[in-house]
Amino acid sequence: MVDSERAVIDETTAGLLEAAGPQMYRRNAFRITGLPTYADRRTVRQRQQRITPALELGADVDLGHSLPVGLDEVRAAFDRILGDPRRRLVDELFWLWDAEGTANGSANGSANGSANRSGSANGNGPAGPTCECPRSLHTDHDAAVRAHSAALDMSTDDLSAGWGDSEATQLWTEASRLWGQVLRRAVFWDHVRHRIAVLDDRQLDESVIDTLRDAMPATLVKPLIELASTASNTADRLLLTKLAHGWPLVPSSLVEDQLEEAAAPHYESLRATAKRASSQLEGGDWDGAAGQVYEHALPALKQLEALVPHARHRRTSTARNDVAVLLNNCATAATDALGPGANLQASKWFRTAGELATDPITQETIRNNRDGLRNMMETFNQIRTQVDQLVAAGRISLARAMLLNVKRQLAGGPGTEEIDRMMDDLRNWPGAYGRSGSGGSGTPGRGRKVFALVVAVVLLLLLARALTGAFDNDGGDSGARPGAGTFVLSAADAEENDPVGGCIEQETDWEVGAREVPVVPCDEAHWGEVVAYEPLLSAESTYLTRTYPGVDQAVALSRFRCELVLARLGTEGEGLAVKNTVPGEEAWGLPVRSPLGGEYTTCVVHRADNGTMTEEDRVPANFTEGDQPALMDTFSPFIRDNAPVGSCVQTKKDLSAESVDLPIVPCEELHWAEIVGYPVLWTDEELPAWPGNEAVYARAQGACEDLTKGVPNTMQRHVVYPAQDWWSGLDTPIYAMCAVSYVGDSSFGGGL
Predict the structure, then answer these.
(1) Contact 684/708 with Cβ under 8 angstroms?
(2) What pLDDT shows up at residue 306?
């Protein structure tokens, strides 16, 4: 390649880079000046000589559009058209080719004013393009520009708006489809070749076409990448990156590279947070360091996962692992200094670190450390048990002597403060040994390597064996009881949860959305028991997918699964009620190891009167589930209180007349009908006066037909719609209930 060709390519690429981004159409020189893309130099100069002096004098000049542009921007636009044919050609490709709609500067045709059909901004230019392209090419190209420009205008004007099924999303999808069709047509490149000939400039040659052919798809998708990197919530970032990956003619690897480049600010923010936290940890402030992780690093990682997930981006994977190492080191520092007093904090930090770690060595070290902490807690629980037995036998002096011996062997190491607390309790006998709190400070500075718990755990295990043997001779029960501590019941990956059976001491310990709760041994008084982890999705129903179904359906699905567990406890469930967790939007569709996926709920049973449960109230671990249904409503005032979409009505019912306590089962079991949706008919903003039964039914029927397209003629729809009294309460959504059953009302298994 000769130097002149390389210069042409480099300058053309520079023009594409300037055009790329959310402002690519707003900064277009032809849109700013109001000129048609085929205007000759004479026409351009005439308009420049008329407009520029007027703007310099501060006159209110009609540029044919409502864009907020100043004198400098208008000057730069004229210079771009007149000064460099390569940059002009780029702007031509990214603006309208036909005269109609050009003069008003809008990609939406005549939406902002009447179109100038002469094709010239001043009416004195050429009447139209002179190329011999098929008319359909110009039409298709301009349709792609209009859709793409409208999508960008809408997206950049309202960055705070959620996307979902919004008009902007539809415009993006349409723009992608149209641009893909245009760029695949050979006549498109014939048009480019024609424009090169018309511009007749030595700086333009055939190499420009090759450069444009290679780089235009990436230029077109670049705005999506930038919008994804600045989106305000996870759902929008996921949707925008999905749209980017679906853009035609753009290799997935290129999209990934652009996404990682756009994520640079997030990586930098995470690096700065990790640096601050490491400094705090080195200074002995492990609480502050962990606080930095939870307050700043984890939100930054969440943003990165939506934009550049660690499964496909090594840099994100490394960042996750670095944060995991940091949390692990916070937990080991706290445990080294506080012993059992660090349990609540350290357990939480180890759990989070385990969920984040991506390096196998880091994962193994964290697991070992977490197990070491559990062993430490078990050892101290054994010590407490032995002390309790001695106190109960009236042998307080022996208990004190035993604790002094343990303290001497600890030599001021981890656990010394816990032994001191036990000795304080002995002075106030009879007393109880409460769960350890957290606190303390002061530990040597630590670097970024993964630290492991070794010395303290080994010492305590030796002590436990020695103590158990000594107290066996005293006639006491040497078996260890389940210890108090924390219980993970709602991790992102269900494999990280503790096995079912944990007992929660009081209802106030249950926090909605919390990953873990404090627990007590189940032979002590407690409020509730974790009895099941239940999947929310089912391969049998096409209405239950790994796409987040919204808050209402997430709540309904979670409640249904746990109500079903309670119903199938049989006599074991008498007098009990059930609470459940609800996975947030971030849990849906993420890659996890557990067969449950991230879309699961945790069920906790408790007495219906919220009274205290005892060991006798525990649900047997090997209980046999029955086939009883959950009793749920199907037309409550609020959709979230109904049986969920994708669940099934077990036996035939008149759904128009019966909507309370219907028998609901998973669709893989025999059933009569499947619930397919609760479409909202009117929102509060558009709610009319009562339109009459026929109008409401017609709207409900249409909504249900949309939900059940493709259902065979052997199936029948059940449409339940609201009566006039629903119009009296503003807080009640106006919705319909849609279900489907066989025409012959026969039972069937599996979804539609």
Answers:
(1) no
(2) 84
Contact at 8 Å (CB) between 718 and 677? no
AA letter at 292: Q
> Which three-class secondary structure state does DSSP give residue 395?
coil
Phi, psi of 390 (to 5 degrees): -65, -40
Q: Are 218 and 250 in contact (CB under 8 A)?
A: yes
The span from the CA of 468 to the CA of 672, in Å, is 60
Exposure on the CB side of residue 196, measured as CA atoms within 13 A: 19
| Rounded-to-10 torsion of CA 310, 315, 316, 320 | 110
In this structure, the number of other CB atoms found within 10 A of the CB of residue 290 comes to 27
What strand order describes the sheet that includes 503-504?
485-488, 516-520, 503-504, 528-535, 600-607, 576-580
State the pLDDT confidence band at 433, using cuts at 50, 70 and 90: very low
Separation of first and last alpha carbons in the chain: 61
Q: Is 436 left (phi over 0), alpha (psi -120 to 50) or beta?
A: beta
Residue 341 and residue 417: Cα distance in Å, rounded?
8
Average pLDDT over residues 216-236: 84
Q: Do residues 86 and 12 lie in contact, with contact meaning Cβ atoms separated by under 8 Å?
A: yes
Over its C-alpha atoms, the chain yields an Rg (Å, rounded) of 34
The 10 Å Cβ neighbour count of residue 488 is 23
Average pLDDT of the chain, as a whole number: 80
Question: Whole-structure pTM over 0.70, yes or no?
Answer: no
Q: Cβ of 702: how many Cβ atoms within 10 Å?
A: 13
Min mean pLDDT across 164-168, 172-176, 332-336, 658-662 is at 164-168
Per DSSP, 498 falls in state: P
**Secondary structure string (H, E, C) spanning 264-283:** HHHHHHHHHHHHHHHHHHHC
* Residue 288 to residue 268: CA distance in whole angstroms: 20
Q: Scanning the structure block, which residue is given the tokens 């520079």?
A: 14
Q: Is it true that the peptide bond before 518 is cis, omega within 30 degrees of 0?
A: no
Look-up of token digits 């934009």: 307
Q: Which H helix or E strand runs over 402?
A: helix 396-410
Nearest to 388 by CA among 461, 474, 463: 474
